[in-house]
TrEMBL record:
<keyword id="KW-0067">ATP-binding</keyword>
<dbReference type="InterPro" id="IPR003661">
    <property type="entry name" value="HisK_dim/P_dom"/>
</dbReference>
<dbReference type="Pfam" id="PF00672">
    <property type="entry name" value="HAMP"/>
</dbReference>
<keyword id="KW-0418">Kinase</keyword>
<feature type="domain" description="HAMP">
    <location>
        <begin position="167"/>
        <end position="219"/>
    </location>
</feature>
<keyword id="KW-0808">Transferase</keyword>
<keyword id="KW-0902">Two-component regulatory system</keyword>
<keyword id="KW-1133">Transmembrane helix</keyword>
<feature type="transmembrane region" description="Helical">
    <location>
        <begin position="143"/>
        <end position="162"/>
    </location>
</feature>
<keyword id="KW-0547">Nucleotide-binding</keyword>
<keyword id="KW-1003">Cell membrane</keyword>
<dbReference type="GO" id="GO:0016301">
    <property type="term" value="F:kinase activity"/>
</dbReference>
<dbReference type="InterPro" id="IPR036890">
    <property type="entry name" value="HATPase_C_sf"/>
</dbReference>
<dbReference type="InterPro" id="IPR036097">
    <property type="entry name" value="HisK_dim/P_sf"/>
</dbReference>
<dbReference type="InterPro" id="IPR005467">
    <property type="entry name" value="His_kinase_dom"/>
</dbReference>
<keyword id="KW-0472">Membrane</keyword>
<dbReference type="InterPro" id="IPR050980">
    <property type="entry name" value="2C_sensor_his_kinase"/>
</dbReference>
Length: 430
């Protein structure tokens, strides 16, 4: 933008300079032309009194003196055909002037001036001089060079002034862009300085108000997360007490485990909301051992798989396998994947879970023996989209965890004809 503003100002200055300097150049040539012709005319007219009164000898001396001191050659043509002064041809202009009329005529070589005057003998004489093209243009080229230099100087000054003005404008724009990038990175304390011009000051003020509003919304989110934790604490505690009060120890232990998972999930959701709200505090990115987390969650779901007569195939890489994901987030991701298997396939449909590692990612693959994803359905990875009557949030949680770690999610068909979900997680640098 800075260069464009400078080019625009220079182009405008060039147009204005051409509009003024071209007429000035034409005027300079006209002035030089008139000056040379007038000077030649005055030089010729200065001899009229000598031609009219002096004898031939005195006239010849006066003409020689005029030619010696003047810029233009003087020739006096007498009525008897003789001529005094510079050698010159008796042109049609001279012959016309012999009839008693003074003339100034443009020729191919310049301008010819003929002054008609009566001599001492009572005959008609003609004082003739000529102005060459070089004399007509004397000083014109220099004037043109000065005008061109003036135009260049004006354009240079305009470019300098435009660059100074554009620099201030561009600096304000870049500062606003920098503040917006800092806000996007989670630095919510970033603020723009209110600077000229007024339009940029208005943008900076609006950006600051937006940043303040974002802080307010995040503060409200933290408050709501805390309120959610407080509201769920009592019903969860009641549910835990009811589970512990069951007469069957095995059933009590199973229900208590489910309550514990529910409580941990709710706590993880609240912690994630608070962590995202305070993302500008510069905390170090969290990581966990994917091998341990995936193994622990698969073990948990294997109990339910046994109850529903599902075959579980496990192929997990040996740990530690650090990934750039918080432990609670990875656990929620695996729970969402396996929960979908139990929720969208019939009892008895087996599934397989594998964990492997390449140079930059850890790959979690879940295959099931269900009906799989419809070939034309791209919705499961979109938040709130589901073709099976569910909330559609499970795979969105998986996608968000993968993307936040620097990975991705792919939906494929398993070798058994069911669904395959491939989750790539970024490996953490320890």
């Amino acid at each position: 933008m800075r260069r464009r503003i400078a080019l625009l100002v220079v182009a405008t200055t060039a147009l204005v300079a051409v509009a003024f300097l071209v007429p000035l150049a034409v005027l300079a040539r006209a002035v030089a032309f008139d000056r040379a012709v007038n000077e030649a005319t005055v030089q010729a007219q200065a001899l009229t009194s000598v031609v009219a009164t002096a004898d031939e000898h005195a006239l010849e001396l006066s003409v020689q003196q005029a030619n010696a001191s003047g810029r233009f050659p003087i020739t006096v043509f007498r009525s008897d055909g003789t001529q005094i002064g510079a050698d010159a041809e008796r042109t049609p202009t001279v012959r016309l002037a012999e009839r008693g009329r003074s003339l100034t005529v443009d020729t191919e070589r310049g301008v010819e001036v003929a002054v008609s005057v009566g001599d001492a003998a009572g005959d008609q004489a003609v004082i003739r001089t000529s102005v060459s093209e070089q004399e007509l243009m004397r000083g014109v080229h220099r004037a043109w060079l000065l005008l061109a230099a003036l135009g260049v100087v004006l354009m240079g000054l305009s470019a300098l002034v435009a660059d100074r003005m554009a620099r201030g404008l561009v600096r304000s724009t870049r500062e606003l862009a920098g503040v917006s990038h800092r806000l996007a990175a989670g630095e919510l304390d970033a603020r723009a300085r209110a600077e000229e011009p007024p339009e940029m000051r208005d943008v900076g003020t609006a950006l600051n108000r937006l940043a303040g509003r974002i802080r307010e919304l995040l503060a409200e989110e933290r408050e709501r997360a805390a309120d959610l934790s407080h509201r769920l604490r009592t019903p969860l505690m009641s549910l835990r007490l009811d589970a512990e009060a069951l007469s069957d120890p095995a059933e009590s232990e199973r229900i208590t485990g489910h309550v514990h998972v529910l409580q941990r999930t709710v706590t993880g959701i609240i912690d994630e909301a608070q962590r995202r709200s305070g993302a500008s505090t510069g905390e170090v990115a969290e990581h966990c051992d994917a091998a341990a987390v995936v193994a622990e969650r698969v073990e948990f779901w294997s109990v339910l798989a046994e109850d529903t007569e599902r075959e579980v195939r496990i192929d997990l890489a040996e740990g530690p396998l650090p990934v750039a994901v918080a432990e609670a987030d990875l656990a929620a991701c695996v729970d969402a994947l396996l929960g979908n298997v139990f929720g969208h396939t019939e009892d008895g449909a087996g599934f397989a879970v594998s964990l492997s590692r390449d140079d930059e990612t850890a790959v979690v693959v879940v295959d099931d023996e269900g009906a799989g994803f419809p070939a034309e359905d791209a919705g499961p990875l979109q938040r709130g989209a589901s073709g099976s009557g569910s909330s559609g949030l499970g795979l969105d949680i998986v996608r968000r965890v993968a993307v936040d770690s620097g990975g991705a999610v792919r939906l494929e068909r398993s070798p058994a004809g069911g669904a395959r979900v491939v989750v790539e997680l970024g490996v953490a640098d320890l």
